[in-house]
Amino acid sequence: MQLRMTNQREIILTELKKSGSHLSADELYERVRRIIPRLSLATVYRNLEILSNLHLIAKLEVGGRQKRFDYDVSDHDHIYCIVCHRVDNIELNREQVSTVAAEGRQGYTVTGYRLEFAGICPECQKKMNKEMNKETNE
Amino acid sequence: MQLRMTNQREIILTELKKSGSHLSADELYERVRRIIPRLSLATVYRNLEILSNLHLIAKLEVGGRQKRFDYDVSDHDHIYCIVCHRVDNIELNREQVSTVAAEGRQGYTVTGYRLEFAGICPECQKKMNKEMNKETNE
DNA sequence: TTAAGTGCAAAAATTTTGCATTCTT
DNA sequence: AAGAATGCAAAATTTTTGCACTTAA
Prior knowledge:
The structure is a homodimer.
Chain A: H1 7-19, E1 22-24, H2 25-33, H3 41-53, E2 58-60, E3 68-70, E4 77-81, E5 87-90, H4 94-101, E6 109-120, H5 122-137
Parallel strand pairs in A: 4-6
Antiparallel strand pairs in A: 1-3, 2-3, 4-5
Chain A binds a DNA duplex through helix 1 and helix 3.
């Protein structure tokens, strides 16, 4: 089965790249729909599946219900905000992690790993501080 | 809201513990249903939610569609088989990982992390070897 | 007794699929 | 042309919710 570059596929890729972030299928759908109004969500799912199988994009299964897709396929890890669910990249020394990991792998052939941090992003921290102040002043 | 120990809740906990593994809601449902045939899947979900909020069990969001639940709430990490989707514990030095992680956290307050390995479990390796041999002999 | 918990059925949320039609190559 | 890809609607999967009834404390 050979691949074809359709309008939909191209714009899905472009928009994911342009976003510079980790979009869920329906977020991407909303964006691409502004350009191709008759786009179907199924097309987005089908393309994301195909493109991630080809490693042209990465499929993330981070916290939260929905899967997210990343234009950046390089090995890197993520941190997600437990309050607003945004996802950011986090830079760290992957080799060191691999070294630590080499230990108790119980007969598995390890093909990869995913290190995912959870935390509260700067914006949500600010919001929470404001809320705190409000309550204190009441 | 105070908690009550119902029959359902108790058996859900016991069966999860007895399994010694990381069950999805519906796997647990099947097991508990053998004991309480009129059990509802909704009850399983509600209990797993409540129990994981109380940290009596842990909710895992590992690879694959469904969430999984673990009787073991201690800090430990997981490895899952990309072929059969089973999940096993993996022992490693969490402090070392934290040290590596301290680096590029971009303003986030880190509340935790999840390190999840992917690989092929011993059983699936065996199966794959058998398949390979079969094909070679044909 | 009372309000937490349950079963059931219906809904919500996310993802996948069948099929006729439209495109890329 | 051929068959890959699409749109649409319907289905599948996983999880949540409303509500009347049951049960633990």
